[in-house]
Design goal:
The chain is an alpha/beta fold. Helix content is about 40%, strand content about 20%. The strands form 4 sheets. It has an 8-stranded parallel β-sheet with strand order 4-14-13-12-11-10-6-5. It has a 3-stranded antiparallel β-sheet with strand order 1-2-3. The protein has a 3-stranded antiparallel β-sheet with strand order 7-8-9. A hairpin with a 2-residue loop joins strand 7 and strand 8. The longest helix is centred in the C-terminal third of the chain and has 27 residues.
Amino acid sequence: MAIEFKVLKECRRTGARLGQLKTPHGMINTPVFMPVGTQATVKAMTPEELKDMSAQIVLSNTYHLYMRPGHELVRNAGGLHRFMNWDRSILTDSGGFQVFSLGNLREIKEEGVHFQSHIDGSRHFISPEKAVEIQNALGADIIMAFDECPPYPCDYTYAKNSMEITARWAERCLKAHKNAYKQALFGIIQGSVYRDLRKESARQITSLGFPGYAMGGLSVGEPKDLMYNMLEETVPFIPSDKPRYLMGVGSPDSLIEGVIRGIDMFDCVLQTRIARNGTVMTSRGKVVVRNACYAEDFTPLDPECQCYTCANYSKAYIRHLLKANEILGLRLTTYHNLYFTLGLMGRIRKAIEGDYLPEFRDDFFEKYGY
């Protein structure tokens, strides 16, 4: 097995778990948030900066790396770790979500997906076998099965067909996987927001014996309460000795609520995306530092934060950088958001260890303004 997962402790009053996930590139303490490095880089950050803020694992995107620079080039460079100078763990998603987000530029068939490049319009085809081949070449520690991600909303028939093709594709991915001894292939559970489909998908996918399982097709526009309900309906059907991954979720409230419902792994572009728009996460809620009210505010983004940004720069200065389109402004807000989120996960782990996660949740939500 390419990975080893161990549950160290379970919260007495919730479904939260404290665990350790060992990969070929190190030990990961869970629950964990994975910064997203779509194109083999976490936007605006260096690997050294990510290490300084205690990032344990990053995510890269199969679709984008297939489109450019190409998986064969990455293989020739010695694999993704060497190519991007990151010696800790990496997870690559299968590219399914990105392909299906292309809308009219793609056509789904049983054999796979035909699509046009969002870059130059060229024609391409990715099958479950091709998705695994690409990820084998990239060399990430954890790779994902190719799935069909239904939109929200969608009708029951569409969701059922999507769930069934995802299950058939999962079997094909397992057969195509060549590096099981050094790359862990995770299965993905689908079913949209239909309880019976989620349970059936969990039964189908877990029966295949993957070393880890992901919840896909959530955080795609549905109300958060509905997402939490789907987790409550599905997580009990996932083996307790395997890591559970909620894909594409990263807002502070959803991280805490997801952990409470038994999720071990998260990823999201939210932290870096809103940072580029001048929005930062703080202990007292979101701050839109571009706003005029911060033009003469010489206090840090968050007085409770110990990150490099907050230790050295004021809101007024960061606002000036953003308004002047200076790259440093984007770097400082991005650094802060990632540091804040990784720090939040560390505090969640301590709360699980100390048996006070419900109290931590209530206190955090009150301060944050939820």
